[in-house]
Amino acid sequence: MTHPFSQLYFLDQALLRLDRKIAQTPRSLEEISLEESRQNADDQRRREELEELGKLIRKMDRDGDEIREKIRRNKSKLKQTQTAEVIQILQRETGNLESDLEALELQILENMETLENRERESQLRRSGTTEKRLELERERSNLNSEMEEYRVDRDRMAMQRERFLDELEPDLRRRYLHIFKGHGFSSISALKGGACGGCGQRQTPQRAMDIQERGDLGVCQGCGRLLIGVDA
User: What's this model's pTM, rounded to 2 decimal places?
Assistant: First the structure.
């Protein structure tokens, strides 16, 4: 046998579940925003790395132009000088410059290859990031829709609950509202296996039988919740 409070119990349980879902949704939306922020930061970091590598290559190109200009001037001087010592100095300096230029050009080629590889990787990541962003947007839209549905359902159930409370006998309503101050929507607990479904406190066999079989309204000695028998 079930107590008339059963309807209020089920309404309160439904409202409790909805309130938990409504409370969880902003956290889920915040997680989406954090994921988007991480993606944006990662994209920005990769762009900065590519820009820095590009700047390095351009600087090395300028350094190469300066070395080539020095080589050109040295060769021009070699054609004009007749002094063996000066010729030897210029040849040695030119040789060093040519070695430096060769090493620099090799490094430029390596950096350009690295830049091209990173740009390809970045393009692939952008494609994946775009898909991920679309997925996050869909998830956000779904969560917002669910939130709206939860609120509509909650308003409807809250109205049903208020109507039920208005129809309760004044003394029962006062008892319930007094306990509600401490336990909220979990103020009514179903008796499960002779124990309070809220705190797990076992009730005496007689009290459990009165609640479950006779439909009496009990009070848990452990937590103070109202106890009712609910048919399985």
Answer: 0.52
